[in-house]
Amino acid sequence: MAFWWSLLVLAFAFAICKFLLILIPPKVPSIDVDASDVLEDGNQAQENSFIYVPPRGATQQSGKKVQCCEPATMKYLGFVPALTPDEVKEQIEKVRKAQKMWAKTSFKQRRQFLRILLKYIIKHQALICEISSRDTGKTMVDASLGEIMTTCEKINWLLSEGEQSLKPEYRSSGRSMLHKRARVEFHPLGVIGAIVSWNYPFHNIFNPMLAAVFSGNGIVIKVSEHASWSGCFYFRIIQSALAAIGAPEDLVEVITGFAETGEALVSSVDKVIFVGSPGVGKMIMKNASETLIPVTLELGGKDAFIVCEDVDVDHVAQIAVRAVLQSSGQNCAGAERFYVHRNIYPSFVSKVTKIIKSVTAGPPLAGKYDMGALCMHEHSEKLEGLVNDALDKGAEIVARGSFGPIGEDAVDQYFPPTVIVNVNHSMRLMQEEAFGPIMPIMKFSSDEEVIKLANDSKYGLGCAVFSGSQSHAREIASHIHCGVAAVNDFASTYMCQSLPFGGVKHSGFGRFGGVEGLRACCLVKSVVEDRWWPFIKTKIPKPIQYPVAENGFEFQESLVEALYGLSIWDRLQALVNVLKMLTEQNSTSGNKKEK
């Protein structure tokens, strides 16, 4: 009895010590990142305070400079270089040299890099969000949700589970290889190339960078020409964190430019991760086929938002408005098709109409606004075209939000949040990716009907299904052909960074996030070795050694049945035959030696 009490006390003491160790924070150095030229009162803002008028139509900006401005005010921010193909290849070669050293580092060192980044992000949330807001037009709240929380969650998952996901994974060796050990190893690919969109300039840089670097790779990230100004500052954060742990300074590079810059990147790296439109994704896939490198494509979305008749309408209406406003030029995974059961259709439309009418759009850093500006120039014209097409085919606008004070030069950068009813699938608004704050609402009568409507799209990124019965919502979601699904919520799948993220059809293929996304940055190598080396080694049986014996095929037949026969008696009989033939073959060999 005394022995068990002693064991219990030791176990309790161990648990207490482990708990106390958790309370002791790890030693994480702080980093300083120069932000003097990107703050509102910094030198760059003072020197470049004039209004920028971008070229329109076919004469969009190009050349040796990428011009940058604030979408919400059209205030000029400056320019960054548009790298030539030769300059891109030079950057990749620098990263390739650095990666060879980084591949030898321990997971402990890689975790320290992540902690340094996490510490900086938490301490400088307002700065990061303000820069994102200035470069894309989104509000500070939207920046916090989409830039800060997602990135912190990604880092936290890598700290907790990243190493375990990349350790060799042992698999069963099967019946014929019982004497072997089988495992999968995950090695760095080399240099990852990422071409990312403008909608989340901070997270879209950090998301592929974190996975690539933690798995031992280097990475070159080509940021969008529509969000290059912020990308260059966010790159400084990464550089400072690498320097703090003594990592090679060229391990990560952020490059700027136009189409030829991206094309040069695709042709020279070991894997491409692309976030953007289906059209550009197809071109990248075609270019990647020249060197036969793996590609992950996260493309457009036209997510279905399904509301069954037994929901709490007030609750779901608030989520629906949040889902559509996240599409206000800021979110590539926004809900763009709303299907509401006809029994609650009037009350749901009434609720969202009331909320939308209370929404105000304006320059996000100039006051308290619910929605910011559109990032891309001329995008409001596309949205107006989609709305007009729907109106011409019988749709009706029932609500629109309002604008705060907007400068005359930035009027085209805003589009009012809009609720449209009487829509159907003949309208472009229900088929094309809008990427804007438009809520088209359509009735449905049955589960079969709404499933058919939700799947009637060339996109397949995500869906959200709401019902008072969780099993009912789960059943509908299981029939939607898409990569991610949220039951009684919207976009929550992406906040679970243990899950893979990606779509099907024109929404792309491949995954980032979770174990699948992390291992997608690796060379996945299958390894087999002797389990009891050197005592038991692979030896080719006599009947099938060269020259092959006359009963060689008969031996193979019996061996296959002995290993895989469905009946235990058939397998035993076959095993007897195998042993018999081996014995006879050995006897024959022995007689030949005596002669």
From TrEMBL:
Aldehyde dehydrogenase domain: residues covered: 61-527
Catalytic site: E298
Keywords: Oxidoreductase, Signal
Record bears the keyword Oxidoreductase: yes
Single GO MF descriptor: oxidoreductase activity, acting on the aldehyde or oxo group of donors, NAD or NADP as acceptor
Keyword Glycoprotein: no
Gene3D superfamilies recorded: Aldehyde Dehydrogenase, Chain A, domain 1 (3.40.605.10), Aldehyde Dehydrogenase, Chain A, domain 2 (3.40.309.10)
InterPro entries (alphabetical): Ald_DH/histidinol_DH, Ald_DH_C, Ald_DH_CS_CYS, Ald_DH_CS_GLU, Ald_DH_N, Aldehyde_DH_dom
Signal peptide coordinates: 1-15
PANTHER family: ALDEHYDE DEHYDROGENASE-RELATED
Protein family membership: Belongs to the aldehyde dehydrogenase family.
Protein name as catalogued: Aldehyde dehydrogenase 22A1
Organism this protein belongs to: Cicer arietinum (Chickpea)
Gene it is expressed from: LOC101512347
